[in-house]
Design brief:
Helix content is 67%, strand content 0%. With 45 residues, the protein is an all-alpha fold. The radius of gyration is 18 Å and the shape is elongated.
Length: 45
C-alpha cells in the first residue's frame, strides 16, 4: 500500500494538477471562441 501511495502522490503532484488545469482551460477557450464547428466532425455525414 505504501508503494501505491508514493506512486499516486508523485503522479498527482501540484505541478501536474496545475498543468492539467491549464490544458483544460486552453481547450475550453479554444472551443468557446471558435466561431464555427470544425469541418472534420461532419466529414462522415
Amino acid at each position: 500500500m505504501s508503494l501505491f501511495k508514493r506512486i499516486f502522490s508523485r503522479i498527482v503532484s501540484r505541478e501536474n494538477v496545475f498543468a492539467l488545469l491549464l490544458c483544460v482551460v486552453l481547450v475550453l477557450v479554444i472551443i468557446v471562441t471558435a466561431d464555427a464547428a470544425p469541418q472534420w466532425i461532419y466529414q462522415g455525414f
